[in-house]
Structure formats: structure tokens, C-alpha cells
Amino acid sequence: MTTLYDLQATTIQGKEQSLADYKGEVLLIVNTASKCGFTPQYEELQKLHEQFGDQGLRILGFPSNQFGEQEPGANSDVQSFCQLNYGVTFPLFAKTDVRGEDAHPVFRHLTERAPFLGFNTDEPSGKMLHSFLSEKLPEWLGDDSIKWNFTKFLVNRRGEVAGRYESTVEPLSMTADIEALLSDAK
Questions:
Q1: What is the pLDDT of residues 129-182, one digit of tens each?
Q2: Is 36 a catalytic residue?
Q3: Interatomic CA distance for residues 113 and 92, integer angstroms
Q4: Would residue 181 count as lying in a domain?
Q5: Phi and psi for 22 in degrees, rounded to 5?
Q6: According to its UniProt record, which residues of this chain constitute the active site (predicted)?
Q7: Nearest CA among 32, 11, 9, 29 for reference residue 19
Q8: Which terminus, N or C, of the chain has the lesser number of Cβ atoms within 10 Å?
Q9: Mind listing the pLDDT tens digit for each residue in 85-141?
Q10: Cα-based angle 21, 25, 30 (whole degrees, multiple of 5)
Q11: How many domains are there within the chain?
Q12: Is 176 part of any domain?
């Protein structure tokens, strides 16, 4: 059975990176975009990186242009945008597909292990995203694929998916879950 550590991805600088390099770390894997209503989440992701990086949290950003073409630039544009606007210093990977036939193996692995459980429609952003997808892309709600930018997967130190957090979940609201995984023995 394939594990997350058997996979690799291309960094935003164009180098192949094995996810085995992150063995023993807690990972927060996120599909991102520069022109999305959720783009300000980069700020909170960077805060988590700064707060917990020395304790073993690694945030891995995977830009994707699959949702409303909200990541139209080249990899160099994405990297510049993230650094200039949000001071991002956590690893970014090359633009990639995260859903559909061409979905990157990392996201196929994650979505197979963490099904889509719906949006919190008691919150305005969850209600809005659910309504938008119901109207424009209803077929997307019927499977476990990524639904929109800034879907987040929390992975424990053993490489197991510990949680899936949809686009509407603010990264800082995940702090307690992150702390619990960081406190697990290596």
C-alpha cells in the first residue's frame, strides 16, 4: 500500500522533492491560489509556520488554477506574490491539478483517506460556498475530491491523515489539533 512518504512533488523552483523528507514531521498540506477570496489565509498559514515550525510542523502549499482560474501566473509569479504579500517562507510546490483525472498523486492519496464531509453551512462562508457549488458545479459535491482553494489536510508524524479542513476553515482555528499532533511522540 502506498504511503504519503512514497510520493514526490516538484517544488516551485522545479526540483523533485520526496515527501519522505518530511518523515516524523506534522504536515499541513494546502492547495492554494493567489486570487481567491480565501487567499488571506496565507497570513494565518505563515503564522502557524512561525509558531510551530521549530516543533516539527511543516506547511506545504500546492498552488492550483483549477478553481475559477484563480492562480493564473507562472510558478515564479506565485512565489513572488506569496513572499511580497504574505511573507510566506514555508515550502511551496509547482502549480498542479488537485482534482480530476490529472490530480497530483499527493491529493489523490489525501482525498482517499479523508473524505469530504460537507461545509459548515451554519457559517456564512460555508453556506456561500455550498450554495455556489450546488448551483454551478453540483457534481463536485458528490465525491471526495477537493472542492475549492485552501482545502487543508493535517497529517500526523506517521504520515497518516488526521483531518481534512475545507476552504472555509481558518488555519488558526486548527491550532489545538496541530498542538495535539505535535505533542505525539515521534
A1: 999 999 999 999 999 999 999 999 999 999 999 999 999 999 999 999 999 999
A2: yes
A3: 22
A4: no
A5: -105, 10
A6: 36
A7: 9
A8: N
A9: 999 999 999 999 999 999 999 999 999 999 999 999 999 999 999 999 999 999 999
A10: 85
A11: 1
A12: no
